[in-house]
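note to self: dont lose this again. the chain is below, predicted strucutre after it. 479 aa total, dont forget to put it in the shared folder this time
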Amino acid sequence: MIDALAAAPTMVPNVPTPLPTPLDEALDALFALTARTLQARRCSLYLRPTGGAGDTSLLLCKRTGLTSEEGVGAAPTEATILGLVARARVPLLVQDIAAYPALPTHPERYATASFVSVPILVENEAAGVLNAADRHDGQPFSENDLQGAELVARALATVLHGDLLVRRALDEGEIDPVTSLYNRRHLQHRMRQERERARRSDTPLALLLLAVGGYEEVAAHAGAQTAGVLMRCVGELVGRVVRQSDIVALYESDRIAILLPDTAPDAAWQVARTIVREMLHEKLPAHLRYDCERLDISLGVASSLALADEASLERRAEEALRMALARGDGIVVAEGAGATRHTSPRAGRDMASLAREIGVPYLADPAAVATAAAVRLLSPQVARSYLCFPVAFEGGTLTLAMVNPLDAAAIHAVSQLTGMAVYPVACPRAQILRAIARLLPVDSRDRRDGRDDHDDHDDHENPGADGVLLHALRDDPDA
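---
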């Protein structure tokens, strides 16, 4: 991109990379489209800081082909091509920089003498500048290239304008649009109200902060929208546990706050225990169970008398949650100035012990014992959707490895697809996904049940290893 296009960029300190937002994902897609459309080696996208209408600098948001020294941080809009395009609000196509000696450029940085710089206009103001330089074929940019860059700039402007309108609405609203939970503004308002009510009635007020451990994993590989759906589902599960008078709100992107009026510390602890007990991975929708390997819940609990203000209550709940996350505990309850450690009732339970507890067999590695005839019964899509894997069958009964062997909907669906009774066995999620990737070919995705009548007949008449395996699982509850 024309880097800072003549600016000596301001270096910024290293900070942790935040998780992508829907806006980031849209900008990434459009920026990648720019480089492909213009066939440019060097591209950059500078945007004005949020709320910085009067700011005299633009921030580098996206780049490709630039060295770390060329385009980092903020670029001033004075005495730069970047600033010239932003102030004039008109696009600039330069086919030969030698013909424009007055332009403030650094030709030594570029392989060619041609570049394109286009403003991104939001509500008739320059919200940013899109730049491209050095075509792959060494040719100068053309009018057609300029038109393509302007089309991308208009698409970027549409995305940025939509984000601006959403932020304006959120500034005035109290519902998070992604999760449908109350937002933090509403939570703060209700905390002030409940504090005053608790002060008048001399009753306790409790606050629970819940962190969802699988959020970052889902956001990283499935996107921010899917991560938002995860938080909405967790909020719905919490809503089924608490009272109607309690307030459930999105506290941060991966955290939920539960405000419990008239709730003593012991009662708040019991609510937290119930939430952890009910927050099962198996209760998530099928598509989320695939994206989220596990659902780790940590809770910080604080409860105070009416004399404590909401800020103090919030700080103590945050400290308790930090302790729970640091120690790997399920629940930490803050009491007074300190915190008491409590371990989640589900902490330390592995799949094998859980299988013994619910009375079903356990299979550590379905891929090691699965038969070819059984594997053909399900498509990869069905197996991933229900997190299951066909292991063996005998006499019309299919042994099915499942992450949740009590999932009645999955058992019914597989039974309908295969025409067999299902005998579920517990199996770790990672092993089921590994078996699907290894043994279920991609080209079987269009089959509904994948059975061959001849193979089906032969295997029913001669169960062989399938029959041995089925009997072994039935006879050994610890298998």
